[in-house]
Amino acid sequence: MEKLPITLGDVQAVYDGPEGALWELIMGEQIHVGGFKSSMELATRAGLKEGMFGLDLCSALGAGCRFLVKNFKVRMAGLDATKTMLDKARQRADAEGFAGSIEFKDGDVTKIPWPDKTFDFVWGEDAWCYVVDKDKLIAEAARVLKPGGILAFTDWLEGPAGLSNDEAARINTFMKFPYMENQKGYVKLIQANGMTLIESSDLTPEFAGYVDFYIKMLTDQLTFDALKIIGDNMPLFQAMGGEMMFMGQMAHNGKMGRGRFIARK
User: Fold this and answer.
1) Which residues have a Cβ under 8 Å from the Cβ of 228 and sit 6 or more positions away?
2) What is the tens place of the pLDDT at every residue in 164-185?
3) Which of 19, 65, 121, 174 is positioned for an S-S bond with 76, CB 3.0–4.6 A?
4) In the chain, what percentage of residues exceed pLDDT 70?
């Protein structure tokens, strides 16, 4: 798939601005498909244990870190490059009493600012689709993992049926993705960086249902709230709804989806 000239700066603009607040409205603080249920399944399948030290790459509002500290009694670090997300993540962690269990750093996930062999696991949820150099991301994740450490992540993918260049360009432009990896592509990157694949699951069928769910929420319940976030701009709201409906169509056709991956260093 052809990469678009979308940069980290473009993604920062989204999550420093009203679009970031809109995604939180639709998807909750975790800002990923399936929320608590998806996180619990990923962590359980990855075999996370009390006392482990983990790194959440593209940690956003820090909800993933707080989820893991609350439910799996681990210590966490979060890395993100968006000031608004980091400020809110620190504030919310402090408010919930997790200041001593979670550290957040500002940085690029392709240049992780921790030493080699620091973490027991590296974590990500539906965010690496924003990263331009996914090979470097996976390589950096492998570098900071201890021997035997676990890589566990979900992400939005090009679906098994594949996207045309025009379809991909439309979705990626709207979402500010440089490109979406596919399932086989992520498996190749994981193995090329010296890790042993434990799980590679195609979650595309359930992803399509979630897109329908988000559209229904916006049109049937959250219209007032969404309009407030985007300055009561009804034409913009309608245009965004049209793009989400297009994504839903692509998901139902198996052209756009989501995957879950677990590997061991």
Assistant:
1) none
2) 999 999 999 999 999 999 999 9
3) 65
4) 99
For 8-264, CATH number out of 1.10.940.10, 3.30.300.30, 1.10.443.10, 3.40.50.150 equals 3.40.50.150
Cα separation, 32 vs 38, whole angstroms: 8
Per-domain boundaries in the chain = 8-264
Inform me whether the pLDDT recorded for 248 exceeds 70: yes
* Cα first-last separation, the chain: 28
Give the model's confidence band at 1: pLDDT under 50 very low, under 70 low, under 90 confident, else very high.
low
Residue 20 pLDDT exceeds 90: no
Distance CA 1, CA 132 (A): 13
Which neighbouring-strand residues pair with 11?
Answer: none
DSSP annotation of 156 reads E
Q: Given its phi and psi angles, is residue 7 left (phi above 0), alpha (psi -120 to 50 degrees) or beta?
A: beta
Taking every pair of C-alpha atoms in the chain, what is the biggest distance, in angstroms?
52
Instruction: Using alpha carbons only, give the angle 28, 29, 35 rounded to the nearest 5 degrees.
Output: 60
Rounded Cα gap, residues 265 and 38, in angstroms: 23
CA separation for the pair 207, 111 (Å, rounded): 30
The helices-and-strands tally (H runs, E runs) of the chain is 11, 7
Q: Where are the alpha helices (DSSP H) in 120-203?
A: 134-144, 165-175, 183-192
